[in-house]
Design a protein that fits this description.
about 500 residues, alpha+beta, Purple Acid Phosphatase, chain A, domain 2, seven-stranded mixed sheet, globular, disordered N terminus, binds fe (ii) ion
């Protein structure tokens, strides 16, 4: 047993009752001249007895900016490892402490801190904070999941996607942070590697990242937003990725803009590592990010199961017409098998499947011809059929799919044959609009709705996010729109509501 494990165990038991910070270890932080907690705090992956706490120390006063200083070294000078104390309490003033410990923030992981706090009680709020040297972090609030056998009657979560930093303000997150929610689910495009579009309200201040420190800087820039920080500090999050966390439209080991595969895989590993370093996900021992698992399953009492799917890392690459048979997989063989097993074990009243985009077919061509977005499930028809077959075969009680990616809100009935409005409806589907990212024209969305009768609603003229409130007899989805993504003083309000009834798949517009 390492010294570090010893100390952690001691702190978790010996000092848990004391309302004081633990004494830091041998690696002490110096006095800070700038706030090392300027990226805020976050929590995630809530389980009945555990939750992950996250922060990352940054040192803006001592690190040269390679974009303002072109002679700065490619690899930034590194700070030494620093010990960071963490504390969980029942109350915001930390008068009733629950658990505390020390984690070592190391330069190899950009001084990020991932604490898996265990031994907590199910279905209750906790408060947490960090300390390093003379600096104390903002206070975050988090919530554990209800126990798997809990007879809970209500669970409410926000879901969001697509937050290009330059194209708008994060009014949606300011609104989200004030709501009564149990969880936030992010479905991808958390950062954008590219600058595009016009009328930017702010700037990436750097080019397209390909190296580890560049992806780190991009994540840090996004995390510097105070409204995004508020939403992270208010609720636990579950986080998926889509393509822009690495590069637009990549699939598996193939990128349309990186023709040399080994170079792309190095870039992908850098992007995956930076993603890990900035997300409230469990600590890992490995330092190899050639592969990194983000798919998973989370239970919230006997009311709700949430299954999150990775449609980027393992997908068969290449244009759809060239793929054949079972090669057209979005999830890869291992994840498909895992999905089958997970669905077979699912017992909850409502089963939400989160993935980055729209599963229902979307014919983009008005009139008799057809045209599809081959980067989405329409390019992976066999994989989609297997996924829908699994939902049917396992007789999932109330399957509801959530997604993002399209920069438009959609509501759809998922029929047995995903491209028709005929045959039994086997699931309900909701795609959330973008937080800020440039939308398609509303007229284009209107013509898609007219062309695809199983798509019941489409709105690309509003930015915002969605709230799903799950109750025993019905699930409601509220679409929250912001008044103007370019206005820092914009307001937010629910502009459309849907309901799904227990035992009756299909979306009902309220
Ligand atoms: Fe996007």
């Amino acid at each position: 047993m390492s010294l570090r494990t010893d100390r952690r165990r001691f702190l978790q038991t010996g000092l848990a009752a004391a309302a004081v910070w633990p004494v830091l270890g041998t690696v002490r932080a110096a006095t800070f001249t700038a706030d090392p907690f300027a990226l805020g705090v976050a929590s995630g992956c809530p389980r009945p007895n555990s939750v992950v706490l996250w922060t990352r120390l940054i040192f803006p006063d001592t690190e040269p900016d390679p974009f303002t200083n072109p002679f700065a070294p490619i690899e930034k000078p590194q700070h030494p490892p620093l010990d960071v104390a963490w504390e969980i309490a029942h109350d915001e003033a930390f008068a009733r402490p629950v658990l505390s410990g020390i984690d070592r923030a190391v330069p190899e992981f950009a001084h990020s801190v991932h604490v898996e706090a265990t031994g907590l009680e199910p279905d209750r709020w906790y408060f947490y904070r960090f300390r390093c040297g003379d600096a104390v972090s903002p206070v975050g609030r988090t919530r554990t999941a209800p126990a798997s056998d809990a007879e809970n009657g209500r669970f409410s979560f926000a879901f969001a996607s697509c937050q290009q930093f330059e194209q708008g303000w994060y009014t949606a997150y300011r609104d989200m942070a004030q709501r009564d929610l149990d969880l936030v689910v992010h479905l991808g495009d958390y950062i954008y590697e590219v600058s595009y579009g016009g009328q930017h309200v702010r700037s990436h201040q750097s080019g397209t990242p390909t190296l580890l420190y560049e992806y780190r800087d991009r994540h840090a820039l996004y995390k510097s937003d105070p409204d995004l920080q508020r939403a992270h500090a208010a609720f636990p999050w579950l986080v998926l990725w889509d393509d822009h966390e690495v590069v637009n439209d990549y699939g598996g080991s193939v990128s349309p803009t990186d023709p040399y595969a080994p170079a792309f895989l190095r870039r992908r590993a850098a992007a995956y590592q930076a993603w890990y370093e900035h997300m409230p996900v469990p600590p890992i021992a490995a330092t190899n990010f050639d592969e990194y698992r983000v798919y998973g399953h989370f239970g919230f009492g006997n009311l709700l199961d949430l299954t999150l799917l990775d449609t980027r890392q393992y997908r068969a690459p290449g244009p759809g017409e060239e793929r054949a048979g079972s090669e057209t997989t979005m999830l890869g063989t291992a994840q498909e098998r895992w999905f089958d097993t997970t669905m077979a074990a699912s017992q909850a009243r409502w089963s939400v499947i989160g993935q980055p985009t729209l599963i229902a077919e979307r014919d983009l061509e008005p009139g008799p011809g057809t045209r599809y977005a081959m980067d989405a499930w329409d390019g992976y028809r066999d994989g989609r059929e297997r996924l829908l077959n699994t939902i049917q075969r396992e007789a999932i009680r109330n399957p509801v799919v959530i997604g993002g990616d399209l920069h438009a809100f959609y509501a759809a009935d998922l029929h047995e044959a995903a491209g028709t409005a005929e045959g039994p409806i086997i699931a309900s589907e909701f795609v959330t609009g973008s937080i800020t990212s440039n939308p398609p024209d509303q007229r284009a969305v209107d013509s898609i709705i007219a062309e695809n009768p199983h798509l019941k609603f489409g709105n690309s003229s509003t930015h915002g996010y969605s709230i799903m409130t799950v109750e025993r007899d019905r699930t409601q989805v509220d679409l929250v729109g912001i008044s103007d993504r370019k206005d820092p003083a914009a307001t937010a309000a629910v502009f459309q509501k849907f309901a799904v009834l227990d035992g009756m798949p299909g979306v009902n517009r309220l």
